[in-house]
C-alpha cells in the first residue's frame, strides 16, 4: 500500500506502521493527559479517558483528498481495497505494542503523573480515525469483536464514501460520519473525492446511519471562508442521518493542510458556537450541550438525552431535575456487545457531570491568555504533586482542565 518514500515520511511524523496497511500515532491529548494538562473533548463530552486511548487506522489509504486534512498528497488514495489483508489479531496486537512503545518515554519523566502512566498501560479506548478510511478494511467486524473482547471501546470515523460498509458494520460504541459541506458542489471542492458519485454515496451513508441502533455522531469540520454556509442545508442532511450527537469543530491549521489553506481559515471558538446555533435553528429535536474551547468544538445532542432524575435532599424531600446523559457506560457497552443480543444507545448511557455541561460564552483565548493559563496550571500541578508526594492523581471529570491553545 505504501511506497518507501510515503512510509518514511509517515515515520518521520511519528506514525508507526503496523503490518502492511494499519498505522498508530500517539494522540496529542493522550500526552497532555499524562502530563496532567487535561484530556480531549471526548473526555468532556462522552467520558473517554484520553490517557488510555489508542489512536489508529486500519487503512492508511482513503478515497478523498480533503482540503483540511493534515495528510500530504503523497499519502495513498484508492477507491477499492487492492492490497493484502492482515489478520485482525495481528493488527490489534501490533497496534497496542506500537502504542505502548511510543509511550515509553513518559515512564519516569517527572512531568508525567506516574499513576496515569501506569493506567495508560491498559488501553481502554480505540479511536479508529487517525488517517485514511478505517471502514474499508475487509475484516473490520472481526477486529471490532476482538476490541470488545479486550474491553476496549470503539469510536470509528468514516468519510461516508462507503455506504455498504456502513450498512454492514457491526456495532461500535460510537460511529461517526464526517459531513464536510452542505451541497454537492462544495463537497467536491472541500473533500476532493475520487468517486464521481460522491454525493449519492454520502446521502446513502446517512440513510444507513439513521438505521443504526448504537450511538452515532455527525462531525462537521468548520473551515472559515469555505464551508460555514447554508446552515439549513446542513440541518437537512443531519436530519437524514438522525445522529444522537453532532459535533461542530474548527479546522486546525496543521500538517499538510497548511499548503492548501491559511491560518485565517481557522474559525475562532465563538464563530464555531455561532455557526452551530445557526444550524440548531433548523433542528428542533436537538440542543447545544457542551463545548471544549482548546479544540474549538461544541457538542449538540438529541433532546431525549436530557432525562428527568429524581433526587432526595438530606431531609428526604424529593425533587425532579433534568440532566444530560451523554457519557458512556463503557463496561455496560462491552457486556451488551459481547452478549450478541440486540441493544441500543439507551442501554449504555450515563449522566454527564455538571462540570462538563454548558456554553461559557468565552471565546478563543489570545496567545497571552493561553500562556498565562498554562503557567497557572503548571503551578497548580506542581503543588498537587508536592501535596500528594507523587503518589496518586485522581482522574475525574472535575479534573478536566483546558489545555493550551492548539
Ligand atoms: S478520543 Fe481522539 S482526541 Fe481523544 S485521546 Fe483518543 S484519539 Fe485523542
What's the topology here?
Elements: H1 4-12, E1 16-18, E2 22-24, H2 28-34, H3 41-46, E3 53-57, H4 88-103, H5 114-120, E4 125-128, H6 140-149, E5 153-158, H7 163-168, E6 174-178, H8 184-191, H9 198-210, E7 215-222, H10 231-241, E8 245-250, H11 269-280, E9 286-292, E10 297-302, E11 306-312, E12 318-324, E13 327-328, H12 330-339, E14 349-350, H13 367-388
Parallel strand pairs: 3-4, 4-5, 5-6, 6-7, 7-8
Antiparallel strand pairs: 1-2, 2-3, 8-10, 9-10, 11-12, 13-14
Helix pairs in contact: 4-6, 9-10, 10-11
Bound molecules: iron/sulfur cluster.
Iron/sulfur cluster (SF4) binds next to helix 2 and strand 3.
Written overview of the protein:
- The strands form three sheets. The chain has a ten-stranded mixed beta sheet with strand order 1-2-3-4-5-6-7-8-10-9, sandwiched between helices. Strands 11-12 form a two-stranded antiparallel sheet. The protein has a two-stranded antiparallel sheet with strand order 13-14.
- The protein has 406 residues and is an alpha/beta fold.
- It has one domain: TIM Barrel.
- It has helices at 4-12, 28-34, 41-46, 88-103, 114-120, 140-149, 163-168, 184-191, 198-210, 231-241, 269-280, 330-339, 367-388; strands at residues 16-18, 22-24, 53-57, 125-128, 153-158, 174-178, 215-222, 245-250, 286-292, 297-302, 306-312, 318-324, 327-328, 349-350.
- The two termini are 31 Å apart.
- The chain contains 13 helices and 14 strands.
- The longest helix has 22 residues, at 367-388.
- Iron/sulfur cluster binds at residues 27, 29-30, 40, 42, 48, 50, 53, 55, 127.
